[in-house]
Design brief:
Elements: H1 3-28, H2 34-41, H3 43-53, H4 58-82, H5 87-112, H6 133-152, H7 154-162, H8 164-169, H9 174-192, H10 201-215, H11 219-241, H12 249-267, H13 273-302, H14 311-318, H15 322-334, E1 338-341, E2 344-347, H16 349-373, H17 381-387, H18 393-403, H19 412-421
Antiparallel strand pairs: 1-2
Helix pairs in contact: 1-6, 1-7, 1-9, 1-10, 1-11, 2-4, 2-5, 2-10, 3-4, 3-5, 4-5, 4-9, 6-9, 7-9, 10-11, 10-12, 11-12, 13-14, 13-15, 13-16, 16-17, 16-18
Length: 423
C-alpha cells in the first residue's frame, strides 16, 4: 500500500475523530458556528507566521494559526462586552475582519515573490494529498491529544457546556473549563487546516456532533459516536479521493459526513424520519382499533339486552367502506377485543373493558372543556375524538383532581344533563 495514502488516511481519521469529539461541546453550548469564525480567523496567523519565518514549517504555521484563532475569540468577547451587539453579529465581524486580513496577507506574500510561497494558499480548502510524514506527526499527533483530552474530561466539560449556571452554583471553575473547551476547539481546527482547509473545517465540528445526536441523547455515547462519525468521514473522503488524482480529499470528507448525517436523519431508531413515520403509523392503527371498539360498545349500551352488533350498523355509524370495515375487523380481532359471530360482532371481556375506557376518557374530556373553558357540550366532540387516544392514566388522574372528582366518577350522566339543558 502506498505510504502517502497511509499518511493521508491516518491524518484524516485522527482529525475527523478529534473534530467530531470537540464539536459536541459546541453543540451543547449552542454556538457551533464559533468554529467557523475561529477557522477563518486563522488565515492571517498563517500568513504572518510565514512572513516572519520565511518557512512553511508545520510547527511554525500551526503556532501562527493557534495564536490568530485565540485572538479572534478574544476579539469576539471584547466586542460583545463593550459594544453590545448580538452574538452572531460579533462572530460575523470577527470572521469577515480576520479573513479579510488573511486574504490581504496571502496576496501580499504572493506578489512579493520571495520565499517558498508554493502551496501556502492550500490552507483555504486543504490539500490532504500533500501530507507527508512530518505533517502526520504534527497535525495527527495534535488531533490525537485533543481527542484524548475531550474523552477524559467529557463529563466535567459537558456539564459546564450544558448548564454553566448550575456548575457555577456548586463551585466549579466555569471560566477555566470554558477556556479549556475553547483551547481544544482551536487546536482541533488548527490540526485540520492542512487536510480540510479553513473554509470547510467548521463542517467537521458540526456535522458529526449533529449526526450523533440523532442516535443517542446521552453525553458519553454522543461524544464517542461523534468521534466515530468524524473518523469514518475522514476515512471515506480519503478512500474516495484516492480513486483519482484530481479528487480533493477535504470536500469529499465533508460530503461523506453529509451522507452519514442523511443516514442518521432517516434511519436513527428514535429521532429518524423512518422511525417517526412508523410510530405515527402504529398510532393511527391503534386509534382506528380503539375507535372501532368504542363505537361497538356505544351501540350495545344504546340497545340494552343485545350482545352483538350487525356489521351494517357499524359501517353506517362510522361511515366506513366495505374495505375499511373488514380491515378494522381484522385488526380488532387480532387485538383480542371482538369475536365474529352469527349476525355480527361480539366484544370480548377485554373488548368491553377497552371500549368503556375509551368512552369514559372521551366523555371526561368533554366535561373538562365544558367546566374549565365553558365550551358547550355539543361543540367538544371533535376535540375529544383526538384527545381520548392521548390521555394516559397519569393525565386522567390529573384531570380528575383538577375537577375535584373521584376516580370512580362516571361522566355520562353529566354529559346527558348538559346536552339536554344546552349547557
Amino acid at each position: 500500500m502506498d505510504s502517502n495514502f497511509l499518511y493521508v488516511l491516518t491524518g484524516s481519521v485522527l482529525l475527523g475523530a478529534a473534530a467530531g469529539a470537540v464539536g459536541v461541546f459546541g453543540l451543547l453550548r449552542k454556538n457551533s458556528l464559533v468554529g467557523e469564525t475561529v477557522a477563518h480567523s486563522m488565515l492571517p496567523g498563517i500568513g504572518m507566521a510565514f512572513l516572519l519565518s520565511g518557512l512553511k514549517n508545520s510547527w511554525i504555521l500551526l503556532l501562527g494559526s493557534v495564536v490568530s484563532g485565540a485572538l479572534s475569540l478574544v476579539f469576539v468577547r471584547w466586542v460583545r462586552r463593550f459594544s453590545g451587539p448580538r452574538p452572531d453579529a460579533a462572530l460575523a465581524i470577527a470572521l469577515s475582519g480576520f479573513y479579510g486580513v488573511g486574504i490581504v496577507l496571502l496576496t501580499f506574500i504572493q506578489n512579493r515573490g520571495t520565499g517558498d510561497f508554493s502551496g501556502l494558499d492550500h490552507v483555504l480548502f486543504g490539500r490532504a494529498a500533500a501530507m507527508v510524514e512530518e505533517d502526520v506527526w504534527v497535525f495527527g499527533g495534535l488531533a490525537l491529544v485533543v481527542l484524548i483530552m475531550a474523552l477524559v474530561g467529557h463529563r466535567s466539560m459537558g456539564l459546564v457546556a450544558f448548564n454553566p449556571d448550575f456548575a457555577r452554583s456548586i463551585g466549579w471553575p466555569v471560566r477555566l473549563y470554558e477556556a479549556v473547551m475553547a483551547a481544544l476547539g482551536i487546536l482541533a481546527i488548527a490540526a485540520g487546516i492542512r487536510a480540510v482547509g479553513i473554509v470547510l473545517m467548521a463542517a467537521l465540528l458540526v456535522i458529526p456532533a449533529a449526526t450523533a445526536r440523532y442516535w443517542t441523547h446521552r453525553l458519553g455515547p454522543t461524544l464517542v459516536l461523534s468521534a466515530v462519525f468524524g473518523a469514518l468521514g475522514g476515512a471515506l473522503g480519503t478512500a474516495l479521493s484516492s480513486t483519482s488524482a484530481s479528487m480533493p480529499t477535504g470536500p469529499l470528507t465533508v460530503l461523506s459526513l453529509c451522507g452519514l448525517a442523511l443516514l442518521g436523519i432517516v434511519l436513527a431508531p428514535q429521532r429518524g424520519l423512518l422511525s417517526k413515520m412508523l410510530k405515527k403509523h402504529r398510532k393511527r392503527l391503534q386509534s382506528e382499533r380503539e375507535n372501532f371498539i368504542k363505537v361497538m360498545v356505544l351501540c350495545l349500551e344504546e340497545r340494552p339486552g343485545t350482545q352483538t352488533v350487525p356489521g351494517s350498523v357499524l359501517r353506517k355509524r362510522m361511515g366506513l367502506s366495505a374495505r375499511e370495515y373488514y380491515r378494522n375487523v381484522r385488526r380488532t380481532v387480532a387485538a383480542g377485543w371482538i369475536l365474529p359471530v352469527v349476525g355480527g360482532l361480539k366484544p370480548t371481556e377485554s373488548g368491553w373493558t377497552e371500549g368503556r375506557r375509551i368512552n369514559r376518557l372521551h366523555r371526561l374530556w368533554e366535561v373538562y372543556l365544558n367546566r374549565k373553558a365553558g365550551v358547550p357540550i355539543d361543540r367538544v366532540h371533535e376535540s375529544a375524538e383526538v384527545i381520548e387516544h392521548l390521555l394516559t392514566p397519569e393525565l386522567e388522574r390529573d384531570i380528575l383532581a383538577e375537577l375535584g372528582l373521584c376516580e370512580h366518577y362516571a361522566p355520562t350522566v353529566e354529559i346527558h344533563v348538559n346536552a339536554a339543558t344546552g349547557a
